[in-house]
Structures are given as structure tokens and as C-alpha cells.
Write a structure and sequence with these properties.
The protein has 80 residues and is an alpha+beta fold. The protein is built from two helices and six strands. The chain has a single domain (2-72), classed as 2-Layer Sandwich (Alpha-Beta Plaits), CATH 3.30.70.20. The longest helix is centred in the C-terminal third of the chain and has 10 residues, at 54-63.
Length: 80
């Protein structure tokens, strides 16, 4: 499972930070940061989700008020 985070879309509500510790606050920029991620496109960050953290990652995606976070299964289908 993988997660994609669009930092440009992020409005800095930081609800994802409360749901999954892979997200942290960058209060200077007013955006969340996704740890251990790689920038795939401009301001889109991607990383694999450890199996034991999949539920937390899904919750982080669900609580994002602007849908800046998407979760995909191993077949590439979006699940959140």
C-alpha cells in the first residue's frame, strides 16, 4: 500500500498529524510534511505504508479537509 500527499493542496489544518505520526507540522510553511517520502511530481510526495500503519494512514487521508492525501492498494487502486 502507498500514500500520496499533495503538499500544494494542503491548507495546514494538521488533522493528518493527529492520525498518523508519519505526518508532522511545518508551521513556518503552514503545511504538513510526510516523513520518509519521495517527491514524485512537483509538490506530490509518495511513500510506502508499513502494514502495521495502514489503518492510521487511511484515517489521515479521510480526515484531510481538502483531499490532499490519497491511499492506494498494491494494485494501484485508490482506496481512500
Amino acid at each position: 500500500m502507498r500514500i500520496e500527499y499533495d503538499r500544494d493542496t494542503c491548507i495546514g489544518m494538521f488533522q493528518c498529524v493527529a492520525e498518523w505520526d508519519a505526518f508532522s507540522k511545518d508551521e513556518d510553511a503552514g503545511k504538513a510534511v510526510l516523513a520518509e517520502s519521495e517527491e514524485r511530481d512537483e509538490d506530490v510526495f509518495v511513500r510506502e505504508i508499513p502494514e502495521d500503519e495502514e489503518l492510521d494512514a487511511k484515517f489521515a487521508a479521510r480526515v484531510c479537509p481538502v483531499d490532499a492525501i490519497r491511499v492506494y492498494d498494491d494494485d494501484g487502486e485508490q482506496v481512500v
